[in-house]
Records
---
Amino acid sequence: MISIVSLNNKRSWRATLLEKIIRPIPLVKDERKEQNFEKALIDSETPYQMPKAAQKKFNIHKVAQIDETTFEIQPQNNKISKTIYYLHGGAYWWQPSNLHFKMLQKLADENQARVIMPVYPKSPRYTADDVLPYILDNYKKTINKYHIMSSALTLMGDSAGGGLCLSLLQLLEHETIAQPHRVILFSPWLDISNSNPDMKSIQHTDPLLNIEALAYQGEIYSGSFKTDSPLVSPINTNFSKFPPIDIFSGTHDILYADVKKLSRRDNDNVNFYIFPKMNHVFVTFPIPEAEKALNIVKQSITH
């Protein structure tokens, strides 16, 4: 199912203003530049530390029984009835941002859910060869620690984390581990090669991502895998074998090109929610369209 979601058939003034603000600011670094690469290498080799601001503001705790970089975000009222396993985005290079933590706290509060978020190893120091076994092992430990039945678990992720969710599903299938009952993806990175020619027609509307720069990060992340391998570019796998999937995407996002490509396939288990003129991972921003998307998520998880 493909749903075009908008507010009174137009973009909110907040979303319009936000795009104007971020367009001239290089929020996303080009890691092809030597100085950026060197810093990214150091960052990827440095143990992750939760930002102090996030610790103070949100109901978040380290899950030391799993590892030092897995965190649980609980509802502020501590009433828990659901579990979300969340894989954050960042091109497989960057750590979660404060926008991630703010959105995850909102998801926890509005859905009475514990949100488990592992901060997985990052490129350029680490690649898919390291990340995929880590995520599989982390998922298994999470299921065992909380005694979660797969039927009560929602798998969720954004951007690279959305792609990683689909990689995890393939790993679970290979090991005959039960799949989560539902999968929700925000602006997923489906093909790390960025080879879809339709991306070029979107590039001028995308204030955040660059086709070539992002493809470079994907190539480094791929490690020993070919960039068209389904385990790193899940658009090349069979989605019909997966549980129900909801995909949220904005048309001012170069990654929308592959979401649109996927929507042309006969996948009855995949629902597409397309938000006109929305940017990459718009659900993390303080705009009405994000509220609309998260309300749909709440209904989806409930059912």
Note: The chain has one domain: 2-302.
---
Amino acid sequence: MNSSSLKHIIKIIILILIISFVVDKLVFYGLNKISDKVYTGQSIGKLNQYLQIKDDLEFFVFGSSRANHNIDPIKVSEHSFNMGMDGRKLAYSATLIKLLPNEKKQTILLHIDPENAFNKNYSGDDILALSSKYNRNSLIKQEIDKLKHDNLLQNFYWSLSYNNKVIGILKNYLKPKYNYKTYSGYDPIYVNENQREIFQNILEKDEKETSEKEIDCQKELVLNEIYYAYINELSEFCKENNKTLIIFTSPVFDDGCSDDNIELNKILKKKNLDYYDFTNFFKENNNLEYWKDKTHLSNKGAEIFSEKIKSIFDKNR
């Protein structure tokens, strides 16, 4: 290949890069305009609603589906929002907490699952659910980069931050799922008789299998380094910004091993953090009607549990 041909190829490559860069930015800003009008659904709507109201409320719930489905924040305070999301762990929640306004008095109820806290393989990849804001919010960008979940191409092609979210965004743009102005972030689970019967059968099967083998508790209980770092950071953030941080573990139908709960309690107590382990909250009254499955409450169970959370909130006001 002679030098003339090589120069021609280089020019074509540069031209392609320039065109793709410009097209990417047009797509990115187009998606921004659409997504900024979406306030329903978990693709981006619930996040947009949180970012819109976070400076005005006094009580927030953060965590996974075990926060989202288990606590009605309006039972706790009229000025509240449940930012629990399916499949989210600490990296996602901690980043959103850090976006709360400085020095405004607010109460933060943060769900932590001991099993996840002691999982050495947890990498904080749930933070990628915030990637649509990567090139729009400096703190979110900083947190994603810190956990090394940044995509090098994303710094050049910004529209990549909307990967896997476009369909959900468009669906909720064209047909919103609910009236977000009356939505508190809480998604109750209504269980019908058929579902309850299925759960009963699962419990009977599990009981038989458990009786035939020993429960294997996790042997090494070392707090995941990402959990350790975020717990320290959130503790400092809340102290400096007039926030009350309450950490809790949501109820489960039957906890096979409590070692991780005990160890997490010790760690958080040493850090002078308020921690409530509600794993066995329904142990003395384990009515099947209170459950959807072993880790998620039905709307009936959530109503009772929310009343308990209210009593803790009132005590800390």
Note: The longest strand covers residues 243-249.
---
Amino acid sequence: MDKKILEKRAERLRELMIHEDMDVLVAISPENVLYSTGAYIITQRSLRDRLEISIIPKDGDAVFVVCGIEESLARDESWIEDIRPYVEFKQSPIKFLADVLAEKGLDRKKVGIELHYLSSTFYKELIGYLPNTKFHECRGIFDKVRMIKEPQEIELLAQAAKASRKAVDAAFLTARPKDTERHLSTEIMTNLMKQGLDWSFMVLGTGRRTMLTHSTPSNIPMEPGDIIRVDFGGILSGYQSDLARTAVIGKPSTVQADTFKKLANIQREVIESMEIGVRFCDVYNKCKELFEKNHLPFSMPHIGHGLGVDLHEHPIINPLNEEELQENMIINVEPLVIYGGYAYHIEDLIQITPNGPKILTESEMSEEIPVIS
């Protein structure tokens, strides 16, 4: 990502620091390190003890503490010039963090840090070095900045969303009854990777397994008459995709076709209602009312979420969220219903614009259930 854009992003973080009366922000999670530095260090997601830490003061230069083996990548991708590598297993990244805070006089200031992510072991180590420093949760600051997407972010998310939709559409066209769940999931993810995305997650189940919230694909064959539900995503330059689709194996029954049609129309009406200034709780309640109007059971705690460097970002479409929709929020809308022994699930990505919601998956939004035959 362009380093000038990243510098402007840091300024937005600093503006919120002033508003929240914070003197420094310390990011430790993979998502906020990527967001605040621009460096996509993939090992940070799987090797949780290999910390990468961005330190952004309200005043003065930022510092990026990285594992030594990631130094070259950090220097290539990050806008931060002061990069301090530590030797893994020999030196402590938390000690490096404490030293930076003390060096800059920030150990006597109000320090915002990701307490929700920092392990208790690392936190105990940190306060051992800085017993008089007051640490405060800074998650809300990152949430507020990240919920409004920049043009480059929107482009990445749209590209990933379209690739995901094409991947599943193509897999449904080539799939046949009696293929296994695992075969179909492999086809979807292969199609996705051919378009330049990395694999992120795959939820897929047929028949009664559609009702398992996060079923992993198995070697069970897809039987004629069954519903299949897939919810999956990939990663493009650190940004997520998240898409859900429902199909039927062979000719759908009247109930299956009617249930899907109702759900598709509900999703369309909910999306159409998502104008700038509308409250998220009102979007949720509209969805609930549409379920009731269509005589479908409704039990979802949320019907959608923000998307970006993380899979579920702020804001969430739930009944308690009284925030209003704003321009360039990027939201997944995903109504799901369990009916007649199956779960039906549709999920698409939209952008909030002054001209109304824009569907970034470029889906046809058909009310007819896809058929695998």
Note: The mean pLDDT is 97.
